Amino acid sequence: MKQITSNSLVANGDCLLLMKNVESNSINLILTDPPYNIGLFMHKRGTNIKGMRDNHFAYSGWDDMSFEEWSDVMADFMQECSRVLKKGGALLLFMSILKLETIINLAESAGLYYKTVGMWHKKNPMPRNMNLHFINSLEPWVYFTSGARTGTFNNKGKAIHDFIETSTISSSEHRIGMHPTQKPKMLLHHFVELLSNENDVVLDPFMGSGSTGVVCEILKRRFVGFEINAKYYQIAVKRIQEQK
Predict the structure, then answer these.
(1) Cα–Cα dist 29/201, whole Å
(2) Which of 38, 109, 124, 238 is most buried, most CB within 10 Å of its CB?
(3) Burial (Cβ within 10 Å: 0-12, 13-18, ≥19) of residue 88
(4) The Cα angle at residue 35 between residues 32 and 38, in degrees rounded to 5
(5) What b/e readout covers 4-29, taking b as 16+ CB neighbours within 10 angstroms?
(6) Among candidate residues 12, 13, 56, 62, the one with its CA nearest the CA of residue 37
């Protein structure tokens, strides 16, 4: 692993292999966006995603495993999450609504405690096929804790609902990150601030182009990130270093 700032440690490679080098009970928060494995499903849909956007995730190549293969990978991933999280540490991941039951079952089998499912409401979703059916403006997230039924929750006495509304990434932010499933920093900021404290360790095993790492630099968290794609890894390194 490569130390790129005083607070950020990153590596290029398969997260299931790299996570084995992470010390047990050392992570306060895992915030990540793993493959949803709905690429083949999307290919069968009556949509114009190819013509609309060449770098749509359905054409990325990483999202088209069989259900059985994907389930095995995610089962191993959940076991590693359970091992590296501290008692009371949190796992929050984004996931397709089609896979929520599977993810919850896999996480519980690994010993994680299911807290809730919530929604990210995109205020400016891409209006593809708007004359054919409802615009897809919701993306689920699911929240677990490890070794305890509660953990860090910095609500400051305010009621925090199980949904968050933000815009999708701006054109300028996307030009910097260039990732087809890139999440806006505002969205990630919400969860890092709520579920961790300053100097806590935040892990993103599927860090893409490094948005979680950038947010951790801003909020003074220590960050560990893994990315298998060399192109996005290099973008992540540059973005995090420039934020320090």
Answers:
(1) 7
(2) 38
(3) middle
(4) 140
(5) bbebbbbbbeebeebbeebeeeebbb
(6) 62
E strand segments, 95-213: 112-122, 138-146, 163-166, 201-204
- pLDDT at residue 23 above 60? yes
Q: Scan for tokens 């069968």, then name that residue.
A: 44
The answer, as to whether pTM is greater than 0.85, is yes
**Choice among 77-81, 87-91, 158-162, 168-172 with the minimum mean pLDDT:** 168-172
CB-based contacts of 77: which residues, under 8 Å, 6+ apart?
Answer: 15, 16, 19, 34, 205
Is residue 15 pLDDT above 90, yes or no? Answer: yes
Q: What are phi and psi of 215, to 5 degrees?
A: -65, -40
**Contact yes or no for 244/5 (Cβ under 8 A):** yes
Burial of residue 174 (CB within 10 Å: 0-12, 13-18, 19+) is middle
Q: Which H or E run contains 30?
A: strand 27-32
The 10s digit of each residue's pLDDT in 144-181 is: 999 999 999 999 999 999 999 998 877 777 677 667 77
Question: Furthest-apart CA pair in the chain: how many Å?
Answer: 51
